[in-house]
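As a warm-up, study this chain.
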Amino acid sequence: MTPAGIGRARTPWHLWLVGAVAALMNGFGCFDYTMTQLKGDAWLANMDLTETQLAWFHGMPAWVDAAWAVGVWGGLLGAILLLLRRKWAVHAFAASFLGWAAGAVYAFALSNGMEVMGPWWPIQIVHGVLGAVFIWYAMTMSKKGVLR
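Now compare it with the structure written out below.
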């Protein structure tokens, strides 16, 4: 038997920070997604959306809703797997990013989402950038032997 920790890279302090940030960001996304599905307009009223924004939101196709689910739930799973030091975090973050990308294609290319959402759309870009960072970080930790 080998003593615990031999042959395994030590867990760097920043893994806990990145994992916590990813869990908080995606955890809120999961909460928002769940409340939107369960409460609908009652939840969306908290967002102070205009009638045009609400109509755009309700006009999204089912595949965009599915992409949103994959994005937020995949991201939360990725964060949990990262904190558990599992290599599958890379795959979960990649699925999350693909979910975000599908939603972004709809919002920015297939509809007038940028125009309708006004000041809300830059937040989506930040989410995409962070999603790419989470994939890169998990891949880096995997290559360094931190994730197993």
